[in-house]
Amino acid sequence: MIVFAPKETDPRETRAALTPETAKKLVGLGLEVQVESGLGGRCDHPDPQYSEAGATVISDRAAALAGADFVFRVRKPAPAEIAALKGGCVHVSFLDPFNEPELLEAMAGAGVTAVSLEMIPRTTLAQKMDALSSQANLAGYASVVLAADRMNKILPMMMTPAGTISPAKVFVVGIGVAGLQAIATAKRLGARVTAFDVRPEALEQAESLGAKALRIDLGGDTGGTAQGYAKELTPEQLEKQRAAQAKVCADSDVVITTAKVFGRKSPVLIKADVVAGMKPGSLIIDLAAESGGNVEGTVLDEEIVTDKGVKIVGLSNMEGRVPTHASQVFAANLGNFLEHFWDAEGKSFGLDLEDEILKGCVLTHGGAIVHEKFKGE
Ligand code: NAD
Question: Which of these, 3, 118, 262, 289, could form a disulfide with 314 (CB 3.0-4.6 Å)?
Answer without folding.
Answer: 289
